[in-house]
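Hi support team,

I submitted a single chain yesterday and got back a structure, but I'm not sure I'm reading the token output correctly. Could someone confirm the output below corresponds to the sequence I sent? I've pasted both exactly as they appear in my results page.

Thanks,
R.
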Amino acid sequence: MSEDLLDFKRDQPLSAFSTFRIGGPARWWVTVSSIPKMQEILRHCTEKHIRYMVLGKGSNVLFDDRGFNGLVIHAKIDFCEDLTDGRYRVGAGHSFSRLGAFTARRGYAGLEFASGIPGSVGGAVFMNAGANGIETCEHLESVEFVDPSGSLKTFKREELDFSYRSSSFQHWGGAIVAATFALKPDPEARQRQIEIVRYRQATQPYGDKSAGCIFRNPQGSSAGSLIDASGLKGTRIGGAEVSPRHANFVVNCEGATSEDVRNLVDEVRRQVRDKMDVLLESEVRYIPYDVEHENE
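Hi R., thanks for writing in. Yes, this is the structure output for that exact sequence:
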């Protein structure tokens, strides 16, 4: 591979780029700060049959202890353009939390829930992140996307499929590079945004190493409540623990490995199934080391 020509690095420790602080080295690593560069990299990967994944702020992923046997593309396309009248075009690498606070301070409603979510705009669109009864897709106008061939495409919201923590992009290769949001003026947006941050700080393990909520909420219920009712707060396997503060968080409290986290997630799922007759579904993406584990 001509990685030197494309600024590829070898053996980048992934633990430094995951909010879990877990993960072995990536075989190759490249930082991408512009849309044309993303087009070049994806075109190269397709032509050379290189396995790749796109990483934002690493807030919703669990890397394998062995690392990733391919190329990690660190998307740092970071800009925020005010298109007037509550419309903002934002790079995929921009902080989603910062965008929520910024737009609320400007007096626009719709993204207050993003405050305190430690992910990128691209990651929020990819996962259709949500909280407080609002999802990312609700105020999305369009998404700019580079497909595996390197072609840049723009999709209107109505051309995409979104559901709870799901989007069309989870079934495609390529990379989200920008999104445009259409927000509405609301003088109370800033106060709601402040209250959301205060509530999160009071009820969630805000400063701990985690990937946010570990399970999706079952329809009509709360994963955290089910785990709590199953008596699992504080349960530990190795260095991974079900947070005593919020049961739907697994935290890296003492040098946890990826295997520790996965074993703990499996144990929580098993016990909630046995005690509550509910099968929980993981919200965090496990990134396997090699291609043969792609569907795990």
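A quick pointer for reading it: DSSP finds six helices and 21 strands in the chain. Let us know if anything else looks off.

Best,
Support desk
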